[in-house]
Model the fold of this input.
Amino acid sequence: MSRIVRWDPFRDMVAMRSQMDHIMDEWLRASNAENGENSQAMRLAIDVSETENNFIVKASIPGISPDDLDISFADNTLTIQGERKDEHVEENERFHLRERRFGHFMRTIALPLAVNADKIEAQHENGVLTLTLPKAEETKPRKISIRNSQPVVEG
Done:
């Protein structure tokens, strides 16, 4: 059975933005590899979802203290940045495998609708940062009621 889905231009724009981010990431990785830079640079993994009243952003930040994060919101753009500090390595310590990444990271997300910046909430639990960004009142759907009108009788 087919399902009819209402067209949402913002969903298409977010999907296109995600695809463009992916393309640019691949291009930057290839460019960095050509220049001899680390092609496995630290990247902040995030999920962005939307409810009727909020945008929800979840970021994986295992091993990073909330005190080491800088979260800002301006011009409808959320920026999360921080640094995962490298651990002290003993002089005679040899690694057989080292995949964990250290260093500065930053992620910027442009939201498709206005947000009430004064009411943004942040929570940190089990290595996951959760940001709740309430939509501005003017962007929320409003129900419009219809008044009954009585016919005018002339006579």
